[in-house]
Amino acid sequence: MYKLSISVFAALAAVSTAGYGQTAQLGAALNFTDVYQVGYAANLNIGDAVINISNVGAQSGFWVSGVVGGGGSLGNICSNVYTFDSQEEEVSCCACLVTPNGLDALSVKNDLISNTLTPAVPTSVIIKLVASVPATNSSGYSVCNPSTIDLTPGHFTQVGVPNNAGAGTGPGWLTNGMIAWGTTLEPDSPTGTYGVVNVPYQKEPLSTSELTALTTICNFIQTNGTGYGICKSCQTGALSGAKN
């Protein structure tokens, strides 16, 4: 097993995104304000940062037809996670299955940068989250893969449309319902100490070219990274940053 050098990875990134000139915003007219969210983590050589993720139930809740849990897996979403170092390199990707009203978390140091594709371990990162509909198995809508998001124009689930709505939705389609909070460490007083600050994850427009690049490089990581670049999935419950 080996990690890719930065020069090889940079060449890959250039090739992977070549030819994807589309820049249209995905879902701009469909109230997809929460499908794509971006945050950061800094001073990772000093201490940890965290991300907490939930599913607000925009597709289907856990209470359906007057029955708690009656929604089954119909409202589950995937939170697809892509981590970039300060040299614009996608160093890891993974995905978390998030149930309606569930609460899951990732440690940036222990989950996102503990197994990077490139040799250097970054001390600051950009973290991008994309929400999509899970694929199915015997447990229902419960399979997430950050490299297989559906890029077909118009494939978005509408707010309040459950994941089993026939032609109205499909595995890998972008979807509403994700909400995220983060923390990072920033310099504090006295000099030489660091304190925990909140990182509001910003809801941004998502272009076809950006989504293509995220998934294409993630697919390369899965196929050719010999195990490196696959970050850990979420753990149940929230995490909090630690002051150093």
Mean pLDDT: 85
SSE pattern: HEEEEEEEHEEEEEEHE
Rg result? 18 Å
Strand content: 25-35%
Low-pLDDT stretches are 15-23
Structure write-up:
Mean pLDDT is about 85; it is low at about 15-25. Helix content is about 15%, strand content about 30%. The chain is globular. A hairpin with a 6-residue loop joins β11 and β12 (about 195-200). About 40% of the residues are buried. The protein contains 3 helices and 14 strands. The protein is α+β, with helices and mostly antiparallel strands. The protein has helices spanning about 5-15, 110, 210-225, and strands at about 35-40, 50-55, 65, 65-70, 75-85, 90-100, 105, 125-130, 135, 140-145, 180-185, 195-200, 200-205, 235. The strands form 4 sheets. The chain has a 5-stranded antiparallel sheet, with helices on one face. α1 (about 5-15) packs across α3 (about 210-225). The protein has one domain.
Write the layout of secondary structure elements.
Blueprint: H1 6-17, E1 36-41, E2 50-55, E3 63-64, E4 67-68, E5 77-84, E6 90-98, E7 103-107, H2 108-112, E8 125-132, E9 135-137, E10 140-143, E11 178-187, E12 194-200, E13 202-203, H3 208-224, E14 235-236
Antiparallel strand pairs: 1-8, 1-13, 2-7, 2-11, 3-4, 5-6, 5-8, 7-14, 9-10, 11-12
